[in-house]
Design a protein that fits this description.
With 430 residues, the protein is mostly helical. The chain has a single domain, classed as Amino acid/polyamine transporter I (Up-down Bundle). Helix content is 77%, strand content 0%. Helix 1 crosses helix 11, helix 11 packs antiparallel against helix 12 and helix 13 packs antiparallel against helix 14. The protein starts with 9 loop residues before the first helix and ends with a helix. The relative contact order is 0.19. It is a multi-pass membrane protein.
Length: 430
């Protein structure tokens, strides 16, 4: 245990939670959701926010109840569902790999656009940032809390400023400029497609032991951060689209916020947004890579992942996990499409948050309506996403379902093989 002077205070927790969501969220998904929901994009963010808010409550409630870091994996262990804990942990790691790939994809596109680069430069930048952050983590300096807080603060100010400026210059015609208006129910499908924009706050549950007086401060701090981000997303969705126009935001969905900033402020706006996007997505990659590798190490130490993932280097860094997770995410960033990566990650986190809300509902003595709200809206959004994938991306959906089946069937086989190998090794030693 660290002394109190090295603990994360409420302001640090708030900044890291907000940054964990915004760092890659709005930069990567705004153009995707505008294509689906048009003038109802702001409502799409509100709807998915109504899943994120109860989920944040459930994560903090369960973490405080069990007094242990580890998130969904630990929650399931504590309620004696070890098999589901193992299955969900594998799915969660896949979700984080997809998320890192989305952030790397965004990093490459935002910087490439600013330098008038081609697709090759984008791929080199995406791969380069992942490699750089793998090396940074292997060197033992992957978690730079103070630096992340500064990046988050600047990032939030830039986004808030852009959103407010666009709303002040009110022009609702821009919300459907060049496209057909969408019905209000399209907000449900738009929100379903980009739910991963709200992942990130739960990474703070992996840092529970580092938070100062978590029983007192964690709940109000995390809840206020998530609510702020929901409102920020809705503000930016309205303001940025009014500045950039729906057609441009969809045509350049990978760098939608750069389009809005350049339209409003010219070259200066483009430079500011490129710098903000670059630092924000890099910080999001770094924190997600760091937390996912440590999660994999913890799961391996509980015999739910092959012991290969439990290996650490001389700086006590889970080196193998970091390298494998980073490489997989980098490859996906280079070969994948933005909407497919976002939707696959969204499905993984919708399922995970649904499980956490269900556990919180079962374990709660009061305020059961909060996790139940997250469950009900999560089911509606999850069904909408599955329907959307069936219609528009059946191959991607089949791939996701194939991974789930592989986890359910393949995980027990791998773990049995490991146990047999360990038994054989012990017999040889005897």
């Amino acid at each position: 245990m660290s002394d109190s002077s090295s603990k994360l205070n409420p302001l640090s927790v708030w900044a890291l939670a907000a940054g964990g969501m915004v760092g890659g969220g709005i930069y990567t998904v705004l153009g995707v959701v505008i294509a689906v929901s048009a003038q109802w994009t702001w409502l799409a963010f509100i709807i998915t926010g109504l899943i994120a808010i109860p989920s944040a409550y459930s994560y903090v409630y369960l973490t405080n109840k069990f007094h242990e870091e580890g998130g969904a994996f630990v929650f399931l262990e504590k309620v004696n569902d070890r098999k589901m804990a193992g299955n969900l942990s594998w799915l969660l790691i896949i979700g984080y790999i997809l998320t890192i790939s989305v952030y790397a994809y965004a990093f490459g596109h935002y910087l490439s656009f600013a330098f008038h680069g081609n697709p090759m430069l984008m791929r080199l930048l995406a791969a380069g940032i992942v490699i750089a952050l793998i090396l940074l983590n292997l060197a033992g300096v992957g978690k730079l809390t103070n630096v992340e807080i500064i990046i988050v603060s600047v990032n939030l100010l830039v986004l808030l400023g852009l959103g407010i400026y666009g709303i002040v210059n009110w022009d609702p015609a821009q919300l459907t400029a060049g496209i057909s208006p969408r019905p209000v129910w399209s907000s449900l499908f738009g929100g379903a497609a980009i739910f991963m924009a709200y992942e990130g706050f739960q990474l703070l549950t992996y840092e529970y032991d580092k938070i100062d007086k978590p029983e007192k401060s964690f709940m109000p701090t995390l809840m206020s951060a998530v609510i702020f981000v929901v409102l920020l997303y809705a503000t930016v969705a309205l303001g940025a689209t009014m500045l950039g126009g729906a057609t441009s935001m969809i045509s350049f969905k990978e760098i939608a916020l750069s389009i809005a900033a350049e339209t409003a402020f010219g070259k200066t706006g483009l430079i500011v947004m490129t710098v903000a996007a670059g630092f924000a997505t890099a910080a999001a990659i770094n924190s997600t890579l760091f937390s996912t590798a440590n999660l994999a190490k913890r799961i391996a130490s509980q015999n739910e992942l092959p012991s290969w993932f439990d290996h650490t280097n001389k700086k006590d860094v889970p080196d193998r996990s970091i390298i494998l997770i980073g490489i997989l995410a980098g490859v996906l960033a280079i070969i994948g499409s933005l909407s497919s990566l976002v939707e696959a990650a969204s499905l993984a986190f919708l399922f995970t948050f649904g499980i956490v809300n269900w556990i919180a509902y079962r374990e709660s003595d009061k305020r059961k309506w909060i996790p139940m709200t997250g469950i009900i809206i999560g089911i509606l959004v999850g069904l909408a996403l599955i329907f959307r994938l069936v219609i528009s991306k059946p191959i991607a959906l089949a791939g996701i379902l194939g991974l789930v089946l592989l986890i359910i069937l393949g995980r027990p086989y791998l773990l049995r093989k490991r146990e047999q190998n360990n038994e054989n090794s012990n017999e040889d030693e005897d």
